[in-house]
């Protein structure tokens, strides 16, 4: 089946969906992106992701080329053309095409908008969550504004590859103080010995995950205490549970960190309960 992408107002077969070599996203990673999960044809946490999209653009002073309604129309058409009921929507907005020069181009330069949609099997993700995953740790080598969702993901790419090569699913990034910031594409959580859920505060060192904030609310509603603070690798390794959150993994239990089992080495009951609570609320 031909997959269709949206590029600057046109729906094209993905092989023909091209951007210019002087697009600033390609030249400088001068672009932001968003990812929505789709279940039963619905975008999950839609407004949270739109809000972060608007914030990322504003932080980089890229003019938002569309309203939420405008994006939603394109998303609906892409889901239809690609026959996606369960899967992902990817959106990227760059500062546009201009002769290569570091400084911003002329104010009338039109941002480039690219969107794609793909199908995913929800059962495969559920099976992975049933088993839990291993993570390794890596030094956090990113810049000082990880709260902006830019396409500048090279340190994340290298960390994820290191994880895969080590037989793990994710790399947790560790700052100079020895504290976990987040995963290469997920937020990091533990349930400590006192039964408190801990996840790093939403500062400039992490992406403010939309799933992270939904899970914070769900956890509080279920009566768990949530503390937003940094935790060390050792604290995580000796925690009762560890898990990660993201639009694509929802809540997925972590069963080992750098080869050391977390808890009894099986997915923890709180991680499982939070995943169920998240998916039930859809
Ligand atoms: N942290 C990083 C670095 C990410 O790339 C992502 C998602 O792509 C997340 C956290 C999770 O964010 P969200 O829950 O909004 O998907």
TrEMBL record:
Gene3D superfamilies (alphabetical): 3.30.470.10, D-amino Acid Aminotransferase, subunit A, domain 2
UniProt keywords, alphabetically: Amino-acid biosynthesis, Aminotransferase, Branched-chain amino acid biosynthesis, Pyridoxal phosphate, Transferase
Keyword Transferase assigned: yes
Cofactor needs: pyridoxal 5'-phosphate
One Pfam match: Aminotran_4
One cellular component term from this protein's GO annotations in UniProt: cytosol
CDD domains xrefs: D-AAT_like (cd01558)
Known catalytic reactions: L-isoleucine + 2-oxoglutarate = (S)-3-methyl-2-oxopentanoate + L-glutamate; L-leucine + 2-oxoglutarate = 4-methyl-2-oxopentanoate + L-glutamate; L-valine + 2-oxoglutarate = 3-methyl-2-oxobutanoate + L-glutamate
Enzyme class: transferase
Single GO molecular function: branched-chain-amino-acid transaminase activity
GO biological process: one example: branched-chain amino acid biosynthetic process
Pathway participation: Amino-acid biosynthesis; L-valine biosynthesis; L-valine from pyruvate: step 4/4; Amino-acid biosynthesis; L-isoleucine biosynthesis; L-isoleucine from 2-oxobutanoate: step 4/4; Amino-acid biosynthesis; L-leucine biosynthesis; L-leucine from 3-methyl-2-oxobutanoate: step 4/4
The enzyme's E.C. designation: 2.6.1.42
Xref: SUPFAM superfamilies: D-aminoacid aminotransferase-like PLP-dependent enzymes
Function text: Acts on leucine, isoleucine and valine.
Family: Belongs to the class-IV pyridoxal-phosphate-dependent aminotransferase family.
Designated name of the protein: Probable branched-chain-amino-acid aminotransferase
Species assigned in the record: Maricaulis salignorans
Lineage start: Bacteria, Pseudomonadati, Pseudomonadota, Alphaproteobacteria, Maricaulales
């Amino acid at each position: 089946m031909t997959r269709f992408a949206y590029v600057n107002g046109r729906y094209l077969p993905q092989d023909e969906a091209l951007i210019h070599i002087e697009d600033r996203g390609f030249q400088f990673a001068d672009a932001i992106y968003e990812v929505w999960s789709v279940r039963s044809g619905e975008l999950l946490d839609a407004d949270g992701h739109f809000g972060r999209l608007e914030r990322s653009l504003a932080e980089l002073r890229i003019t938002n080329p569309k309203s939420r309604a405008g994006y939603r129309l394109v998303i609906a058409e892409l889901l239809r053309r690609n026959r996606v009921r369960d899967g992902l929507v990817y959106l990227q907005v760059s500062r546009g095409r201009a002769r290569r020069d570091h400084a911003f181009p002329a104010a009338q330069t039109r941002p480039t908008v690219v969107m794609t949609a793909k199908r995913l099997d929800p059962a495969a993700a559920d099976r992975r969550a049933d088993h839990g995953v291993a993570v390794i740790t890596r030094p956090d080598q990113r810049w000082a504004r990880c709260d902006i969702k830019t396409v500048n993901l090279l340190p994340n790419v290298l960390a994820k590859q290191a994880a895969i090569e080590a037989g793990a699913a994710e790399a947790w990034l560790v700052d100079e103080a020895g504290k976990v910031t987040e995963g290469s594409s997920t937020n990091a959580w533990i349930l400590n010995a006192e039964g408190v859920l801990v996840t790093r505060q939403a500062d400039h060192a992490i992406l403010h995950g939309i799933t992270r904030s939904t899970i914070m609310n769900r956890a509080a509603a279920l009566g768990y205490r949530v503390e937003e603070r940094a935790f060390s690798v050792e604290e995580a390794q000796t925690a009762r549970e560890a898990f990660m959150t993201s639009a694509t993994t929802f809540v997925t239990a972590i069963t080992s960190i750098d080869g050391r089992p977390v808890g009894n080495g099986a997915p923890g009951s709180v991680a499982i309960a939070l995943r169920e609570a998240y998916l039930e609320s859809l």
